[in-house]
Amino acid sequence: MAAAGRGWEFTQRMPVDGAGVEIEEAIWYAVHTRARHEKTVAQRLLERGVENYLPLVTETHSWSDRKKVVQVPLFSCYLFARLKPTNVDRMRVLSLDGVLSLVGEKGSGTPIPEEQIQSVRTIVEQQVPWATHPFLKIGQRVRVRGGALDGTEGILVSRNGDRTLVISVDAIQRSLALRVEGYSVEAV
């Protein structure tokens, strides 16, 4: 709002945390956990009011005397937490038993784009066939148009003549690969 007759404006700035960083909306970060602590950390984060996402997949484990269907983390030793980029929010996560660090520079974490989290959610929820894939940073980024994977973004590669979409979560350098034959894809 302009001050009467002065020709200057007041602007409302976002609050600043102790490090001088403007406080923004919550952003997704990857949380590195101790081995086999992903579910426990996810539960403890919920108890502290921290939104999180632990993608789980169903596997059949076989022993000599039995078979059991279990849900295991898609990315071993990782889950995702939605935090405001403040020291207070980071400490709510880092102070939990089982948490090793936030993935990124100097323990402060590297933000993960919402689209990458949503792409992983779509693959897990739609239960389409997928396979792990070496992390790729090169290649053409594409978006699937139509069908169950509509809007899913990733890198298009060719594997044995088949078109494959690689969905990557940059911060943890992990990727999933799924066949997109029959799907329409467009460059992003």
Indicate the topology.
Elements: E1 27-33, H1 38-47, E2 52-53, E3 56-62, E4 67-73, E5 78-83, H2 87-94, E6 99-102, H3 114-126, E7 131-133, E8 140-145, E9 153-159, E10 162-169, E11 174-179, E12 184-187
Antiparallel strand pairs: 1-5, 1-6, 2-5, 3-4, 7-11, 8-9, 8-12, 9-10, 10-11
Description:
This protein is α+β, with helices and mostly antiparallel strands and 188 residues long. The chain folds into two domains: 1-112, NusG, N-terminal domain (Alpha-Beta Plaits, 2-Layer Sandwich); 113-188, no CATH class. The chain contains three helices and twelve strands; from the N terminus they run βαββββαβαββββββ. The strands form three sheets. Strands 7-11-10-9-8-12 form a six-stranded antiparallel beta sheet, with helices on one face. The relative contact order is 0.16. The model is unreliable at 1-15 (pLDDT under 50).
Q: What letter string, H or E per element, gives the SSE order? A: EHEEEEHEHEEEEEE
Shape-level CATH architecture of the largest domain? 2-Layer Sandwich
- Poorly predicted spans: 1-15
Number of domains: 2
The secondary structure category is alpha+beta
Determine the strand fraction and express it as a percent band.
35-45%
CATH superfamily of the largest domain: NusG, N-terminal domain
> Which sequence of strands runs across the widest sheet?
7-11-10-9-8-12
- Assigned CATH class of the largest domain: Alpha Beta
Topology, number of strands: 12
Helix content: 10-25%
Largest sheet: 6 strands, antiparallel
Give the N-terminus to C-terminus distance in angstroms: 39 Å
In CATH terms, what is the fold-level topology of the largest domain? Alpha-Beta Plaits
Radius of gyration: 20 Å
Please state the average pLDDT score. Answer: 85
Count of alpha/pi helices? 3
**Overall 3D shape:** globular
